[in-house]
Amino acid sequence: MLQYRDGDGAWQTSGTKYWGTSYTWYGITSLNQRSYRMAPCSDSQRCSSSWTGPSNAISISPIPPAPSFVSASLSGNNLTLSWGAASGATYYKLQYRDGSGSWNTSGGTYYGTSNYWSNVPPLSLRSYRMAGCNGSGCSGWSAASNAISIDPVPRTMSAPTSSLNGNDHTLSWSAVAYSDYYQLEYRDGAGAWNLSGGTYTGTSKLWVDSAPVHQRSYRMRACNESGCGAWSAASNAITIDPVPGTVATPAAGLSGNNISLSWSTVTYSDYYQIQKKDGSGSWAMVVNSISSTSTTWNNVAPVTSRVFQVRACNESGCGAWSGASSAVTIDPVPGAMATPSVSLSGNDITLSWAAVTYADNYQLEYRNGSGAWTPVSGTYTGTSKQWLDVTPVSARSYRMRACNESGCGSWSAASNTITIDPVPGTVATPAAGLSGNNISLSWSTVTYSDYYQIQKKDGSGSWAMVVNSISSTSTTWNNVAPVTSRVFQVRACNESGCGAWSGASNAVTIDPIPGAMSAPKSSLDGNDHTLSWTAVTYADYYQLEYRDGSGTWNLAGTNYTGTSKLWVDSAPVNQRSYRMRACNESGCGAWSGASNAVSIIAMMQAPTATLSHNDLTLAWTPLEGAVHYLLQFRDGQGDWKNAGTTYSGDNKEWLNVTPLFARSYRMKACIAQDVCSWEWSAASNAVTVYAAIGAPQAKLEGNDLILSWTAVSGMDHYRLEFRDGQGDWRLATQQFYGSSQRWVNVEPLSDRSYRMRACDTAGQCPSPWSAPSNAVTVGAANIIKTFEWTPATVTVGQAATLNWDIAGMQVCYEQQADLSWSEINLMSGAREGEKHYTPSTVETKWYCTDTSGVRYPRNVGEFIKANLEVTPLSAPGQLRQVK
To answer: What's the pLDDT tens digit per position in 324-340?
Structure first.
């Protein structure tokens, strides 16, 4: 039996019996200082009146309510969670979720009304809910807290970009996700990185009018409450130089009227500016920007005491002006000079002139006569110049101009002229010439000569003056008597005297006329002709006359020397003889007697061989004076053979020549017995006489006709003729090859025979026609299988169809309304005819030819015919033709 009480209250008896030594109650919600006591009982349910002492007191509180609120707050990445206290709760449980995801239960227990987490990792829309708990259990979950997010530490930035605009400096970078701000470090060159004192937002930073820096680069990192990413790579480096220092005093130079200026480099300078001042005038800018340390002004107009200053500049500004350079002065170009004056004292020349303002020196040119002006190297100062012992000059004049660094004035007018002539030099060796008995002498001009003198000498005799004064450079003596080894000397003279005598000219000799010659001798070697004679004293050359037979003497068009003349391969001559005479410059001797006579017969032209079947004709061009002709022949490239007789006239014919191969001929002309041309003519064309081919053989196989023959070696094709009975032979248009020909489905023919001849590739047919073949007869065959109109009778306005089937023919021809013929190439077919509107009988007429060109029907007036009957309408009325 069990009793219980709460605190010090009255004991209450449980209505339940208990066995064993323990008991468990489930689902008790609350107890408050509950204690128990027990009394033992028997099976008869009699219990002891003595209760045990009270048990220890226990309390079971009620399950607390859920917290009234839950709130999350952040400080950096430190999180504080606060909640309302739940009555009776001794601790709390926690759930969380991200966004609208599933709730997750925290493994810990929480006490009080808040909890703090430091350095919380990144979260995204994290919210919380809680339940109040005690020993009796836990409440339901509270409402969700507000959502919080903790961003991740930003990623590493791309390298920023640094740019300058003058001394204004801009740093730009790309935004980084999750960044709240950016930190910046900088360094100069390869030095240590320095952290900038502030933080930066946005994507750029501008520093206006920055102080000088050198090789300044930057790096950045992105930051938020969770921390900062890694530092970026370094930006490009920039340099902002300080204002340059003062340029050292520049150096000005002068070359002609070109002014140069140079100065020393200044550190940090990007460019330089230059100003000028003339004398006591004001400074004026002349160069606003130049990067080099020197410059030149060309062709500067005249200036006086010009000085320059230079200053160095960069983006930070310009330094102070340098000291003034040395002064330069450019005088104006001098004016034109007055005409100089030249004077002569013996061979000494003095040139005088007037000084010119601004002139530093003078230039000089001279000329002889009206020739081109020649500059004198070097320059002159003062007002005169003397040249001593001057070599000869002719009409020499001078002109001058004044010069300085700015240039030269115009040339003066020409001075007066002077002339210094020397004694003439030695004449070059003169040249003596001889024409007949006329002597000529010529020599070269000598400078400064006014005239020439001439002396002569014959052989080893003495010199004698022959011309005392002559102004030309040649002379002639006519009809001079014979002389031996005459030479001449010439010398040049002027008012100063005469030069030395020239060397002796070549010697000239005038021989006496030669005596008469003996008769020359003429000889032949084939067609090569030699004329020989005996030399004659004093002869320089020989003249020649010739004649044929007893004809008139003719003078040869040229002169001859030596003692013989050879004419190679001479032209034909007949009884040609010669006479000669010896000549020199004095004249010619008497003609010699006539030489022996010689004859040269021309070589004939190549003869021409022609064939007419087996008849051979050889034709040639006759030679005048020939009494007969010799003939040789050969076959192919064999040896030449003599014909057994002589020939006359201009041709020779051989009838029914036996076969021969590549036979050619050559000929000689003879003007008497054994007096013939030296050379044979060129060979004639080669001819070949072929044997006639054997008679062909004709045979029939049904309506097919086969013609066979024996092929001829060396021939390309064959021509064919045919005849019926003893009629005329007719030539087939077709060429035939091989050794047989078949005609299929031959139309009727009677007593047909054939003959053939062989032809070469050029179409020449040298062999005669063969004997006729055996005659064959082809009975009537069904050549016209069909040729009719269907239907054969139509009413006016109706059409009919022409049907045909023709065997053994190659092409047919149809007569048209205008009586012309149209070609039909299909040997079977059908076609619809035109409609007819007048009752009549329409006749259709054809003829055809086979592969040999043979007509069918055979007779010209016969045709293949089909008639179409066009009948009138049976009903009354008129049929209107539709067009």
So the answer is: 999 999 888 899 999 99
Q: Residue 455: helix, strand or coil by DSSP?
A: strand
- Among 92, 60, 240, residue whose Cα is nearest residue 167: 240
Distance CA 603, CA 244 (A): 111
**Would residue 228 be called left, alpha or beta, if left means φ above 0 and alpha means ψ between -120 and 50 degrees?**
beta
Closest CA to 326 of 301, 306, 312: 306
Local structure of residue 647 (DSSP, 8 states): B
The CA distance from 706 to 774, in Å, is 12
The encoded tokens of residue 192 equal: 């240590």
Buried/exposed code over 836-865 (b: 16+ C-beta within 10 A; e: otherwise): beeeeebebebbbebbeebebbeeeeebbe
pLDDT per residue as tens digits for the range 662-689:
899 999 888 877 778 878 989 999 988 7
Residue 63: C-alpha distances to residues 74, 83, 88, 137 (Å): 32, 18, 7, 5
Question: Can you give the pLDDT at residue 768?
Answer: 80
Strand partners for 137: 134
Return the pLDDT at 25: 84
Amino acid identity, residue 74? Answer: L
Digit-coded pLDDT (tens) for 685-726: 998 877 778 899 999 887 789 999 998 877 889 999 999 889
**Token code pair at residue 744:** 């299929």
Partner residues linked to 809 by β-bridges: none
pLDDT value of position 878:
42
Among 622, 621, 574, 565, smallest CA distance to 600 is for: 574
Nearest CA-CA partner of 347 in 393, 402, 413, 304: 393
Among 505, 454, 441, 512, residue whose Cα is nearest residue 483: 512
Among residues 347, 367, 342, the alpha carbon closest in space to that of 496 is found at 347
Query: Which of 779, 789, 794 shows the shortest CA–CA distance to 865?
Result: 789
pLDDT, average across residues 192-198? 93
CA 135 to chain centre: 103
CA separation, residue 879 to residues 797, 834, 835, 868, 870 (Å)? 8, 16, 12, 19, 14
Q: State the virtual CA torsion across 420, 423, 428, 431 in degrees, nearest 10.
A: 110
Please report which confidence band the pLDDT of residue 319 belongs to, taking 50, 70 and 90 as the band edges. Answer: very high
**Which long-range contacts (C-beta less than 8 Å, at least 24 apart) are formed by 642-647?**
646/670
Which residues neighbour 111 within 8 Å (Cβ) at sequence distance 6 or greater? 91, 92
Among 387, 394, 336, 331, smallest CA distance to 363 is for 336
Q: What is the pLDDT of residue 450?
A: 86
Residue 846 and residue 788: Cα distance in Å, rounded? Answer: 12
Q: Is the pLDDT of residue 772 over 80?
A: yes
Name the 3-class secondary structure at 261. Answer: strand
Closest among 31, 26, 29 to 9, alpha carbons compared: 31
pLDDT for res 496: 65
Asked if residues 283 and 309 have their Cβ atoms less than 8 Å apart, the reply is: yes
Strands 213-224 and 238-240: antiparallel
Buried residues in 478-494 as b, exposed as e (16+ CB within 10 A)? eebeebeebbbbbbbbb
Q: Which of 619, 626, 582 is nearest to 603 (CA)?
A: 626
> What percent of the chain clears pLDDT 90, i.e. is strictly above it?
59
What's the per-residue H, E or C state across 189-246? Answer: CCCCCEEEEEEECCCEEEECCCCCEEEEEEEEEEEECCEECCCCCCCCCEEECCCCCC
Separation CA 676–CA 603 (nearest Å): 9
Measured CA to CA, the distance from residue 253 to residue 283 in angstroms comes to 19
Structure tokens at 864: 């293949």
Listed in order, strand segments (DSSP E) in 791-849 are 793-795, 801-806, 811-815, 821-824, 828-832, 840-849
Sign of the CA dihedral running 189, 193, 198, 199: positive
How many other C-beta atoms are found inside a 10 Å radius of the C-beta of residue 748? 15
Query: Cβ distance 357 to 282 under 8 Å?
Result: no
Residue 618 CB partners (closer than 8 Å, separation 6+): 607, 608, 609, 631, 651, 652, 653, 665, 684
